[in-house]
Amino acid sequence: MNKDALNALNDIMSQYSTIASHHITDESSKQFLGVRNSICRFCKKTTPDVSFKKDAHALPHCIGNNALFTYNECDLCNYKFGRLLENEFAKFMHLNHTISGVRGKNGYPKYKMDDALIKTTGSNIDWSDVPIENINHNKDAGLIKIKQKIPAFIPIAMYKCFVKMALTLMPDNELVQFENTLDWINEENHQNTKYPFENLLLFHGNVATTERFHGISAILVKRMDNTDRTKPYIMFRLTYATFMFQVPIPLSKMDTTKKVTEFPYIPNLPDLKFGFNKMEIGLMNLHYTESLRGTEMTVTIKDLDGSGTVKYIDA
Fold first, then answer.
1. How many Cβ atoms sit within 10 Å of the Cβ of residue 214?
2. At a CB cut-off of 8 Å and minimum separation 6, what does 255 contact?
3. Residues contacting 27, CB < 8 A, separation 6+
4. C-alpha–C-alpha distance, residues 239 and 217, integer Å
5. Structure confidence at residue 110 (pLDDT)
6. Which of 109, 151, 107 lies closest to 126, judged by CA?
7. Is the pLDDT score of 306 beyond 70?
8. pTM score, two decimals?
9. pLDDT beyond 70 at 207
10. What is the rounded (10 degree) CA torsion for 104, 31, 24, 241?
């Protein structure tokens, strides 16, 4: 256990308490949040005004979630959020999900953009159809970098996707603090909004090696009463495959400001096991409301021992 990461985690846990925690693997049985045929927490409608016939994923299907569902989302909201939010997240992660072998709704994704094609079976990656000038292979360092364009995506919709996940997992008694947040993610026109933002910050990380998280983990942490109120009231963290995302949930009645310029980072398993230099971590501002086209992404693959073997990071 890395001492610096453990101290940082203890510091966070002295300021925040965990209010929701879910961990699922390929072996997890199907489970549902909430009560069947209740009220949709996103539009506040009940039957017969809306139906609850479809299994609504509590976390997106595209990250490999086949086990955690919710009864608290009607079919109309499920369709809307899938179309407007989850699709944007999936487009941003398309290259990463292909290279990391994340199995989604239609099996393993296949990346095809311009003159490049990347395929995966989950354990083997075929990038033979990627232009050679887009691949940097350092055999001595055991490092491969692949640079490709990703599909056009809307940054604010990607951020809303994480907020929607958080609201899905959030305990009922906390939702009253996020009425404006619910209103915000329901806006279908991201540019014509009642809630303009200058900053929507997201921590994103990639282990970038053959080691990966075992399953999908999602947590919500809530600010304690004795914690500085300038810090976000609730934060959400998601880890799966080789990826980590962390966001503060905006527009809470319990927050003193809408403009978040910084927020505490929650150490995760790679940090605790290897230290802070294992995961490549960046900070993104996703407040942009228009579609970004032609964005290039560089995916780094490190195979330090040269074995090509996938190893899982467990607690």
1. 18
2. 229, 232, 233
3. none
4. 5
5. 85
6. 109
7. no
8. 0.92
9. yes
10. 20
**pLDDT for residue 303:** 59
d(CA 151, CA 269): 30
- Mean pLDDT throughout 208-216? 74
Total residue count of the chain as it appears in this document: 315
Residue 311 has pLDDT above 70, yes or no: no
Look up residue 246 and give its amino acid. Answer: Q
SS (H, E, C) the chain: CCHHHHHHHHHHHCCEEEEEEEEECCCCCCEEECCCCCCCCCCCCCCCCCCCCCCEECCCHHHCCCCEEECCCCHHHHHHHHHHHHHHHHHHCHHHHHHHCCCECCECCCEEECCEEEEECCCCEECCCCCHHHEEEECCCCEEEEEEECCCECHHHHHHHHHHHHHHHCCHHHHHHHHHHHHHHHCCCCCCCCCCCCCCEEEEEECCECEEECCEEEEEEEECCCCCCCCCCEEEEEEECCEEEEEECCCCCCCCCCCCCCCCCCCCHHHHHHCCCCCEEEEEECCCCCCECCCEEEEEEECCCCCCCCEEECC
Measured CA to CA in angstroms, residue 122 lies from 5, 109, 157, 310, 311 at distances of 31, 9, 28, 10, 13
The count of other CB atoms within 10 Å of the CB of residue 138 is 10
Contacts of 182 (CB under 8 A, 6+ apart): 41, 42, 167, 175
- pLDDT at 198 exceeding the cut of 50: yes
The tokens for 67 are 């086990």
d(CA 100, CA 224): 36
Is the torsion defined by CA of 122, 128, 129, 130 positive or negative? positive
Q: 179 is written with which tokens?
A: 């009425």
Provide, rounded to the nearest whole percent, the portion of the chain with pLDDT above 90: 62
- Six-digit token string for 54: 């479809």
CA dist 311 and 67 (Å) reads 22
Amino acid at position 120, single letter: T
Nearest to 240 by CA among 2, 6, 24: 24
Cβ atoms of residues 14 and 6 within 8 Å:
no
Region 35-63: mean pLDDT is: 93
